[in-house]
Predict the structure.
Amino acid sequence: MLDARAVLRWCQAALAALAESREEIDALNVYPVPDGDTGTNLYLTMEAAAQAAEAAADGAKATITDVVTAAARGALLGARGNSGVILAQMLRGVADAFSGEAGGADAGVLCDALGRAADQGYEAVAEPVEGTMLTVARAAAEGARAALNADDTERGSVMPAVALAAAEAARSAVLRTPEQLEVLRRAGVVDAGGQGLSVILDAFDTVLTGRRRLPSIRQLAERTVPEVRREQATHHHQGPAYEVMYLLDAADEAVGQLKGELRTLGDSLVVVGGDGLWNVHVHVDDAGRAIEAGIRAGQPRDVRITYLPEQVGHGIPKPAPVRAVVAFAAGDGLASLFESAGATVVRTSVGHRPSTAEMLEAIRRPGAGDVVLLPNERDGVPVAEAAAAEARSEGIRVAVIPTHAQVQGLAALAVHEPGRGFDADVVAMTTAAGHTRHGAVTIAAREAVTSAGVCQPGDVLGVIEGDFAIIGADVGTVAIDVVSRMLSAGGELVTLVTGDGAADGLADSVAAVVRGMRPDADTVIYAGGQPRYPLLIGVE
């Protein structure tokens, strides 16, 4: 039986698998528009679903219905691109099948869920095309149902057998997509959306059985993706100029007319949702008319308009827009580290939260069209978001990576690739920061009540994820305790950043303990020069 925790693990595993394969899936993307963002769109949509599922599962009484319904709604609200909108509707189909299964879902319900996911995916698309993720969804559902009906399936292995059959059927269907879509055959690739769905189903198999498959992207011909993209952009981009997406608050009965209006305006129409909330996606020449149609049906919000010829680039290689990374650093050594990695650095003091005006000035300073902002301080994140919103009104494209600590900023900058697409780069940096746990050692300046008890001036405090977790008398002892607790959850890389006034050999002694605890983990040491914190710690 599937329960709420198993579904949550599925969402989390699918997100992690998409993070690994996102760039490869982006590279496959030649249909319906060769804009190279299908993997990123699927990742962002699944991220919204996983976050909503985690929030719903935060409680002992959460049922499988609660978690799946939350995931489907999260995906609907956070869907990106054509593929993301279809994925959101498929998750809604899964939620419909699991509705009322508070005690858990058996293999039969899972088969129904996969079937409904495929049905609702087809229904959401105005003009379904075979050789896409729709085809893969249908094949997965049929494979699962065949496994359920097989006579040789033992009772105890029904659910794993169904999950494996769905994953294998999806992979086989992905490999057949070039036979169904000419553009895929000419490009020598499989369908990007179908590959993404296959990754998600493989993740479910992993959750149930422990089997893990790294995504395998098969190139099927000698033609290269860039050549086909150039051909499409030069000769075949005669269609709509804009991708329009928005959320729509509207009565269900108004959506039929909306679909009819949008169908006459363009193509790639996908409208998903229900119960008064919809996500609308369409490619049109007149973006204004697409939005006006939404206004007639209800209340559009979160409107996003993308100019497709610019997104595709007309197949002509051109330099990427100048991109800057702006990082806030709390010490001279940290500032040097960020600068050596190519960031524009704003020096700040520990405990001082820069104002919105200061952050806005920092965004403007590089004179770049694209800016990635690393606040590197928990309280600085909302301020950075406010500054970014103002900068966007000035025509600057800004993304804020929610780094709560200096070591998260270092991790994000380590995976920064200026030549990568903006959205893909932001996703990679956000993922790296999010996978970095942070800790620190500091000295109490006054008496205070902490999570670890009452501290006195001069006590050594161990900080884990922003919370005072340890009170001690010796910096080295507390530092080792902090690292030990952080490594208890696993880790492959430990970063130690020494502060102003840190004792000689502090970081080396901690590194020696790490090597003893986790010989497989790497350790790097930097001199950060930050005040008030003898040691900053990151575990990735």
